[in-house]
């Protein structure tokens, strides 16, 4: 299938952490772009003469709203051509060309199981879209458990939003793992914080295999590999209960 290419205008840029940046783009009013929460687009960035070296895929970080405004959360990678463009060259008013949407990493038709969303870094973007879609459309759902991992406390993405959701919705829980934070005092956070990696959290909360839970994973391939092995082999969950999208 040949995807349509869209030209969008950068309307806002904000640093979310020392290594992550939020970028908002707006399509022309005449353009109609629809997507499902969790999908991504492929951008054609001005970073190389060869087409395939210019293409980068990013999950849409906001819920579908029909307003032609899209948000992306991009990670700064040392020496990365796309990172240099997004963090050093991109300016308001710039044009970003992209195609899509693409991807089947989306919400199920029926939210009749508990959702456990496990992610690291900017892998939280599709989950922010999914969670926002559930609450924006007031979809019937069960418990939602977001498990987020990063290195340091200043790398917790969308922290204020998820803290607010936790306060407003008793069925929404939020746990964070910090792998390299040395001065960690869990009492300083209004949500559970663990020192180490995210695996300890779901291993603790879902140690007993249940048929009424669905796991969604998004992050680097080594995290995905470990989590899939833990959930299916170690804990005994069925393969149909584990869904994932990886990058890198």
Molecular structure report:
With 248 residues, the protein is of the alpha/beta class. It has two domains: 5-102, Elongation Factor Tu (Ef-tu), domain 3, CATH 2.40.30.10; 114-247, Nucleotide-binding domain of ferredoxin-NADP reductase (FNR) module (Rossmann fold). The chain is built from six helices and twelve strands. The protein has helices at 51-54, 81-89, 125-136, 159-168, 199-205, 221-234; strands at 5-17, 20-27, 40-44, 55-59, 69-75, 95-102, 114-120, 144-150, 172-178, 193-195, 213-220, 242-247. The protein has a six-stranded antiparallel β-sheet. Strands 10-9-8-7-11-12 form a six-stranded parallel β-sheet, sandwiched between helices. β11, α6 and β12 (242-247) form a beta-alpha-beta unit. The longest helix has 14 residues, at 221-234. The radius of gyration is 18 Å and the shape is globular. The protein starts with a strand and ends with a strand. The model has no long low-confidence stretch (mean pLDDT 95).
């Amino acid at each position: 299938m040949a995807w349509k290419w869209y030209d969008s205008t950068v309307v806002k840029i904000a640093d979310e952490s020392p290594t992550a940046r939020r970028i908002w783009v707006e399509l022309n009013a005449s353009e109609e772009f629809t997507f499902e929460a969790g999908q991504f687009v492929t951008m054609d960035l001005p970073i190389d003469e060869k087409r395939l070296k210019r293409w980068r895929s990013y999950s849409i970080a906001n819920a579908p709203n029909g307003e032609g405004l899209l948000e992306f959360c991009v990670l700064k990678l040392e020496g990365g051509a796309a990172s240099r463009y997004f963090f050093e060259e991109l300016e308001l008013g710039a044009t970003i060309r992209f195609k899509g949407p693409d991807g089947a990493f989306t919400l199920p038709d029926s939210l009749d199981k508990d959702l456990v969303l496990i992610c690291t870094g900017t892998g939280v973007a599709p989950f922010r879209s999914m969670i926002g879609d559930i609450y924006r459309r007031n979809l019937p759902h069960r418990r939602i458990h977001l498990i987020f991992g990063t290195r340091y406390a200043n790398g917790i993405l969308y922290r204020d939003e998820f803290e607010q959701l936790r306060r407003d919705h008793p069925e929404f829980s939020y746990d964070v793992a910090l792998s390299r934070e040395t001065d960690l005092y869990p009492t300083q956070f209004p949500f559970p914080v663990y020192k180490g990696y995210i695996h300890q959290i779901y291993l603790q909360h879902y140690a007993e295999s249940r048929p009424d839970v669905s796991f969604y994973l998004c992050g680097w391939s080594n995290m995905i590999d470990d989590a899939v092995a833990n959930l299916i082999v170690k804990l005994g969950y069925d393969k149909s209960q584990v869904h994932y999208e990886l990058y890198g």
